[in-house]
Amino acid sequence: MNSPAIHAIGLRKQFRATDGAQVVAVDDVDLTIQPGEIVAFLGPNGAGKTTTVDMLLGLTDPDAGTIEVYGMTPAEAVRNGLVSAVMQTGGLLNDFTVEETVRAVAALHGRTDRVEVVLDRARLSDLAGRRVEACSGGEQQRLKFALALLPDPDLVILDEPTTGMDVGARQEFWQAMRADAALGRTIVFATHYLAEADEFAERTVLMNHGRIVHDAATTDVRAAYGGRTLTFRPPADVVGADGIDPAWLAQVRHALEPLGVTDLEVSAASLEAAFLALTTETPHSPEMIGATR
Ligand SMILES: Nc1ncnc2c1ncn2[C@@H]1O[C@H](COP(=O)(O)OP(=O)(O)OP(=O)(O)O)[C@@H](O)[C@H]1O
């Protein structure tokens, strides 16, 4: 298939807030995602991530702009099993077991052949007999992920899939995702967690105030805005019980090389620093708006 997985131009969506004011949730967003890409949508609360995801899935129509998903409307792409989603909300039936849930939805899709494989991909095979209400939040999200995989979609969209999970559950979730992505599926996910974008996405789309403020390889986002961090190990004789000898530290400020510094390490700055640099900018300053691809 030659069409991009997602091709959106000039997307705009506004809502009327309870006080009657217009809120522009998504403001002139252009986005093209190619098959096989893994893309994070990163941004603070209210940045417009969920509204964008909803439009990509055809759950809400844009007020302006166009979206094609594999060359079709989002609704057609969903109907054809090309796209599926793991959303923040959306119920599971508590009385069903994990396997019963998967079998019931598989029957709706006419894909009962995929029950075992999606249980395996979502790392749920050992929990197949557990009732949904006895599953942890993380296990329930993995179950939603398993359901999303039933039609064997080319594109999976996940809206903050790990919200509320503890670190261990998040790791398990992403391990399941990673194993699946390795098979070439296109994955787009919205997240608040910078570490998830950093670890999992090759490309990060940073949103703020409804706009894309940066769109680039995740490593570039970090490098462009995060600066660099320098760490090193001082020689042992200047380190005492009270810390590093202040006189020595003063010398370090002047010149590093002659001081016997070892294990000098230059590491990329954290994505956190990039994120803060980007999202604390004036929201609509023109130099921040242009997407880099
Ligand atoms: N149905 C709605 N009615 C009114 N305003 C809305 C509606 N949906 C979203 N908004 C507003 O649009 C803006 C973008 O919201 P959206 O949920 O897309 O952001 P988000 O980046 O997903 O945020 P979060 O990370 O908190 O989920 C916010 O200001 C939000 O209050």
Short key terms for the protein model shown above:
single chain; 293 residues; alpha/beta; Rossmann fold; six-stranded mixed sheet; three-stranded antiparallel sheet; 11 helices; 13 strands; disordered C terminus; binds adenosine-5'-triphosphate
Short description, anyone?
InterPro entries: AAA+_ATPase, ABC_transporter-like_ATP-bd, ABC_transporter-like_CS, ABC_transporter_ATP-binding, P-loop_NTPase. The chain has helices at 49-56, 74-79, 98-109, 115-121, 137-149, 167-181, 194-200, 218-226, 246-254, 271-279, 286-289, and strands spanning 6-16, 22-33, 38-42, 64-69, 83-86, 155-159, 186-191, 203-208, 211-217, 228-233, 239-240, 243-244, 262-268.
Tell me about this structure.
This protein is of the alpha/beta class. The chain has 2 domains: 171 residues, Rossmann fold; 41 residues, no CATH class. The protein has 11 helices and 13 strands. The strands form 4 sheets. Strands 5-6-7-3-8-9 form a 6-stranded mixed sheet, sandwiched between helices. β6, α6 and β7 form a beta-alpha-beta unit. α5 packs parallel to α6 and α8 packs across α10. The C terminus is likely disordered. It binds adenosine-5'-triphosphate (ATP). Adenosine-5'-triphosphate binds next to β2 and α1.
